[in-house]
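I would like you to sit down with the pair of lines that follows and say whether tokens and residues agree.
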Amino acid sequence: MSSKCSPTYRPLCVFATYKIDVRHVDWVKSYLSIWNDIQAYIKEYHTTGTSWNSLLSKDEPQHKDAPSGPSHPPPPPPPPGPPPPSFDIFNSKPKDDISQDRSALFAQLNQGEEITRGLKHVSDDQKTHKNPNLRGKGAPVRSPSKSHVLGSRKSAPQQSYSPLLELEGKKWRVEYHEGVNNLVISETELKQVAYIYKCKKTTLQIKGKINSIILDNCTKLGLVFDDVVGIVEVINSKDVQIQVLGKVPTISINKTDGCHVYLSESSIDCEIISAKSSEMNILVPHNGDYKEFPVPEQFKTSWDGSKLVTEAAEMMG
């Protein structure tokens, strides 16, 4: 073989000219034998892991002058004992006792119909719902549930109040009248107000000039008055009729179903303000009689490009 190799066969030429040193081979074999010896040593003396001499303290100094005798491997550690019984955090019983209690409980539940055999029979003379005399003999008192409380409230009779018609300071109080058709308030002043509350099927006439009138929670009430300098308010009422003999600037109707307002000639310019109400009608004098006009209940709102425009919806005939 020539000393110069072509570029194609140059790696082969380098491998052919390399000489293997025997010392390197011996060193690798010795290194591998170390791991084999360590593996055999661990399998023989340390099958459960390494163990340390408990008599030798960590702080005890090691003597360098100690004779280096033949090293003997330490004996293997004793086998581990049985684990201690585990306890529950919230119970002082071991897990074995808890499992036994649960097994007993499940065994009782799995009896099915046999579980009722241990119950004591109660005769009819021992039942409180059949013997009212037993109810007051130290029976446990149970607080009524929410459903019982609600049921008792619904079934409780409505408390009745005595009718009232009196002047309290500057306030006329007309309350709890029912089926009365001749109530009249005649001695009025400009600074007085009238408050009419929970009157049913009643007619009331207020003579003279008064500051304001309030109708609250009234049903089928008829109100006739002369003049009001402030406002007439109708709140939470049903089927009421109001007749103006003189003049009133404003009538407000809120949360009312069924309200008929009869205006006089001098109160044509009265403003009607309504909210959350239905069946509202304004009757205006016309040729010696009254002409009825309904107050809109539905409204239509639209956007005109800059603001919202609300107008009454067309009434269906």
